[in-house]
Amino acid sequence: MTYYDNTHHFTMKCDASLLNQRKPFFMPDWSQDVRCIPCTVVRISRLGKCITPKFANRYYDAVAEGLDFVAYDLLATDYAQATAFDNSLCVGEWLPVDNASLPATAIDQAISDISRIVTLRMGDLVYIDHTIEPQPIHAEQIIEQEHLYCKIK
User: Fold this and answer.
1) CB-based contacts of 37, cutoff 8 Å, min separation 6
2) C-alpha distance across the termini of the chain, in Å
3) How far apart are the C-alpha atoms of 130 and 125, rounded to whole Å?
4) What pLDDT score was predicted for residue 7?
5) Of 6, 12, 132, 138, which is most buried with the most CB atoms under 10 A?
6) What is the DSSP letter of 114?
């Protein structure tokens, strides 16, 4: 699910949206404007509902760098297809929680906000988009960060 810090809404994605590390991202043929947004991905480690920020750190056990791929040309007409298509979330290497690129308070608040709406279950992934402007992508591009690698085809 996507969580947007400033507007408090999220998008749920099915497991087919997950692109595993080192697998290429194939540009969908039904979109002409795919962009990626860097994000922090948090792995949920226990069942929880209505979690307070104070206890949210008990509900996740690892973080990863991620890329959220969005078909911007479809956002206005078909939000679900624009955000939750196959392989639209690239997740890098899982790291201990203290390696997160976001402050723990931001992660805890995201977990708390989302858990008021849906029950979080073990194995769920919560990804928190960074406030960086979405970057256009193109075929044959390689996006490489310290713990994430993604080739665009």
Assistant:
1) 67, 68, 70, 129, 130, 132, 134, 135
2) 25
3) 16
4) 47
5) 12
6) H
**pLDDT, tens digit, for every residue of 9-27?**
566 788 899 997 688 999 9
Which of 32, 146, 51, 152 is closest to 99 using CA atoms? 146
pLDDT tens per residue across span 80-101: 889 889 999 999 999 999 988 8
In the chain, beta strands by DSSP E: 2-4, 9-11, 18-19, 34-44, 60-71, 89-91, 125-129, 135-136, 142-145, 148-151
- Which residue positions in the chain have pLDDT lower than 50? 7-8
Phi and psi angles of residue 57, each rounded to the nearest 5 degrees, phi first: -65, -15
Strand partners, 18: 89
Residue type, 117: I
List Cβ neighbours of 98 (8 Å cut-off, separation of 6 or more).
none
Contact 37, 130 (CB under 8 A): yes
